[in-house]
Design a protein that fits this description.
The chain has 330 residues and is mainly beta. Helices cover 15% and strands 60% of the residues. It has a 14-stranded antiparallel beta barrel.
């Protein structure tokens, strides 16, 4: 029971830090399984989490290798504050409702560089989901229908004032199938509409995806995901298609959880092939979570990004980020 008491807030913290519909579905199932195995089966349907972190970003401007800006002028430390309020309630044996509200604030501490502090941001997100438990191909399954909307505010005028920057809303459909007791297969389709404060910035994005997760007897969890993101812009010249592969393994301990991960993106620039060619993004990283108590934890995330493009001056860059802090969940 003590192990489950630490695992429950751990998964609630994870839920606050992802917008991936597969991972959200997987985490919520983990939470349901844990509550079913403990005395918390009739616990409150309300969820809350808070995280405060400091970070160092080596390349806030995402400057390329040929830039005239020095590496010290591109880098900055900063702080992030994140809040999540959630609600999950089973209505019947076959259906459930899920709601979440997220707010995140990022502030860069280098206040004498407008190009840096114009990236200060406030992110607000709301999602509402219906979950339907059923069987598919004779396997225990779960369908999740989600409507969501995100708004962001940034200091894009470099006046140390946050103003509307962008909005992003859409719908997710996710189907989880239990292949066995310890393995799940996921199918998904997502539609999203994105636009920002600039004219002709709208994008309609269609993303089919698949994923697979497997948990060993000792609790190590393996996760693989593939998706194809089709971005249709107002001007067809800006259409793109992104192929993404994601891998993650989570190594559990009683208090520690370590999760190395790797993301690979390959982008077809379509009408801009002559200028940009095929672009790629390499993103290895590792997260560490240490439970201080039942509710409190220390978190660290370290990652590196390398973008490769034929048009090096505008689209290629290297970046690493180190962030660490504390979080609370109940």
């Amino acid at each position: 029971e003590g192990h489950y008491e630490l695992a429950l807030p751990y998964y609630q913290r994870l839920l606050a830090n992802t917008r991936d519909p597969f991972i959200q579905t997987m985490i919520q199932k983990k939470l349901e399984d844990i509550k079913a195995k403990t005395s918390q089966a009739a616990a409150s349907p309300h969820q809350f989490s808070f995280a405060q972190q400091i970070f160092y970003d080596s390349n806030v401007l995402l400057s390329g290798p040929d830039t005239q800006t020095s590496s010290s002028d591109q880098a900055s430390p900063g702080t992030t504050t994140n809040l999540r309020q959630g609600y999950f309630k089973s209505l019947t044996e076959y259906s459930a409702l899920q709601h979440s509200f997220n707010a995140g604030y990022t502030r860069y501490t280098k206040r004498n560089e407008p190009a840096i502090y114009q990236n200060d941001s406030l992110q607000l997100g709301l999602s509402e989901s219906i979950i339907w438990r059923h069987s598919f191909l004779r396997q225990k399954s779960q369908a999740r229908y989600e409507l969501y909307g995100d708004y962001s505010y940034e200091d894009h005028e470099s006046k140390k004032q946050l103003k509307y920057f962008s909005k992003d809303y859409g719908v997710n459909f996710t189907e989880l199938m239990e292949i066995s007791k310890n393995s799940q297969f996921y199918l998904g389709i997502k539609y999203q509409h994105y636009e920002n404060y600039q004219e002709a910035s709208a994008l309609n994005i269609y993303t089919p995806s698949i994923a697979y997760s497997y948990t060993t007897k000792k609790g190590t969890q393996w996760y693989h995901a593939l998706e194809m993101q089709n971005q249709l812009a107002e001007d067809p010249y800006n259409d793109t298609r992104i192929y993404q592969y994601q891998f993650q393994v989570t190594l559990p301990g009683k208090r520690w959880r370590v999760s190395p991960y790797f993301i690979l993106q390959v982008q077809d620039t379509m009408a801009q092939q002559d200028i940009r060619g095929w672009e790629s993004l390499l993103n290895p990283g590792i997260t560490l979570d240490y439970s201080i108590s039942k509710r409190w934890a220390m978190n660290t995330n370290i990652f590196y990004r390398k973008r490769i493009s034929k048009e090096k001056s505008s689209y290629s860059y290297d970046q690493y980020v180190i962030q660490s802090g504390v979080s609370y969940a109940f």
